[in-house]
């Protein structure tokens, strides 16, 4: 049974993740320019599930002509927080020069590596006669759109994304379903990927700061859990318990877009009706979505796609909170939430050995405040003083993947 250890928490009540570096670090074209960064004006963009491209506004000021690099269009940018975690990787998409009296200044609008998916197009890529896993189709689209592009002169695997993933064997690209292919010829890379992902339920795609592509089910569990008072609970296993800021917790149930019956048509005369029997039993009535037909959806994929759409229209719970100086979480990860001011949701969840500690007597009582496991939807970063970030995190309710439960019944 875990034992409470106050030394694992910082004096401020926030979790410390090992030795803390002196401060954040910024590299431009591999050269450290941290000392020239106007930290009060950094504007990091949000990371959100479904928003593929991230940005950061990086202001540089050179008052004594010592800046060791000329920040030009295309320069690679790396941004590390003070825990030495790479939180942004990409390149300069728009350098704006703003001369000052006695100084030079740049405002660098930087895009993360996912912008490459918007800048390139596929060639002749007709896979409509093939039946493969979505992993194979995704890799084929990326190879066709990115190979031999602007980062080299006909040198083969020269794009940074392709180079990094080919060398590692595409380790974070999952296969989630066997589907029929499509004609993705002469399409923008992101459009071809969107066409593929419409046929597969419950998947997300992200190009990480280290250039590796993540694709698959949003089931990757974060190494942390958000709790209201880490000083009053023991550490559960190897999970770091991260205290969110007092008063920032917000939880609501979203029902406005909920439906429990869908009828969809596909190629030819194919038609599928999907029904959420749990919702029907709860409300005692049918809440139906208008009929829609899409001839571009193969008949073999129609049932999977219809149930995926129905799942997205289920009742959702949303949680918002803020944390400071915490390990990063990414959109698509699963994270557990404990709020002792809300009380129990349904159970103690995966942490039955967590205990509350009542001062002054160290009596122990089971924590009855587990709110559930949620998918990270959005992470917004804001500077909080020198070298410190505050993270606003939006979480959406997690529903187990339906297709996994009916894999034997749903074929391609």
Could you walk me through the main structural features you see in this protein, from its secondary elements to its overall organization?
- With 412 residues, the chain is an alpha+beta fold.
- Among the domains are: 9-113, Baseplate protein-like domain - beta roll fold (Phage tail proteins - horseshoe like beta roll fold, Roll); 120-217, no CATH class; 256-314.
- Helix content is 15%, strand content 33%.
- The chain is built from seven helices and 24 strands.
- The protein has helices at residues 116-119, 134-146, 160-168, 189-197, 277-283, 299-312, 402-405; strands at residues 25-28, 31-32, 43-44, 47-48, 55-62, 76-80, 86-97, 104-112, 131-133, 178-180, 203-207, 213-217, 220-227, 240-243, 250-254, 261-265, 271-275, 292-293, 316-324, 333-338, 355-358, 363-366, 370-383, 389-397.
- Strands 4, 13, 14, 15, 19, 20, 23 and 24 form an eight-stranded mixed beta sheet that branches. It has a seven-stranded antiparallel beta sheet with strand order 2-1-6-7-8-5-3, with no helix packed on it.
- Strand 11 and strand 12 form a beta hairpin.
- Helix 2 (134-146) packs antiparallel against helix 4.
- It is globular and about 70 Å long.
């Amino acid at each position: 049974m875990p034992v409470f250890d106050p030394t694992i928490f910082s004096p401020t009540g926030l979790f410390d993740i090992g030795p803390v570096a002196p401060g954040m670090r910024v590299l431009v074209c591999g050269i450290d320019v941290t000392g020239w960064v106007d930290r009060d004006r950094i504007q990091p963009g949000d990371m959100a599930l479904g928003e593929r491209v991230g940005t950061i506004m990086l202001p540089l000021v050179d008052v004594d002509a010592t800046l060791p690099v000329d920040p030009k269009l295309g320069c690679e940018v790396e941004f590390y927080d003070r825990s030495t975690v790479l939180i942004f990787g990409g390149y300069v998409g728009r350098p704006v020069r703003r001369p000052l009296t006695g100084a030079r200044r740049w405002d660098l609008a930087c895009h993360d590596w996912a912008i490459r998916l918007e800048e390139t197009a596929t060639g002749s890529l007709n896979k409509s006669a093939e039946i493969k896993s979505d992993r194979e189709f995704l890799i084929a689209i990326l190879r066709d759109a990115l190979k031999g592009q602007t980062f080299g002169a006909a040198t083969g695997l020269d794009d940074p994304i392709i180079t990094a993933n080919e060398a590692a064997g595409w380790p974070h690209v999952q296969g989630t379903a066997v589907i029929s292919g499509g004609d993705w010829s002469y399409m923008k890379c992101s459009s071809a990927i969107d066409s593929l992902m419409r046929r597969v339920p419950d998947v997300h795609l992200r190009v990480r700061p280290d250039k590796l592509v993540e694709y698959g089910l949003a089931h990757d569990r974060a190494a942390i859990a958000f709790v209201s008072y880490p000083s009053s609970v023991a550490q559960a296993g190897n999970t770091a318990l991260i205290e969110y800021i007092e008063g920032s917790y917000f939880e609501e149930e979203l029902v406005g877009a909920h439906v429990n019956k869908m009828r969809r048509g596909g190629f030819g005369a194919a038609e599928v009706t999907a029904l959420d029997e749990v919702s029907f039993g709860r409300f005692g009535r049918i809440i139906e979505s208008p009929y829609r037909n899409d001839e571009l959806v193969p008949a073999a994929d129609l049932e999977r796609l219809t149930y995926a759409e129905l799942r997205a229209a289920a009742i959702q719970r949303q949680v918002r909170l803020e944390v400071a100086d915490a390990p990063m979480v990414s959109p698509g990860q699963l994270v557990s939430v404990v709020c002792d001011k809300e009380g129990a949701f349904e159970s103690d969840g995966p942490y039955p050995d967590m205990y509350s500690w009542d001062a002054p007597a160290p009596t122990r009582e089971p924590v009855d405040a587990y709110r559930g496991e949620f998918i990270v939807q959005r992470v917004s970063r804001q500077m909080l003083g020198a070298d410190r970030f505050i993270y606003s995190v939006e979480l959406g309710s997690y529903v187990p993947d339906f297709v996994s439960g009916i894999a034997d019944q749903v074929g391609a």
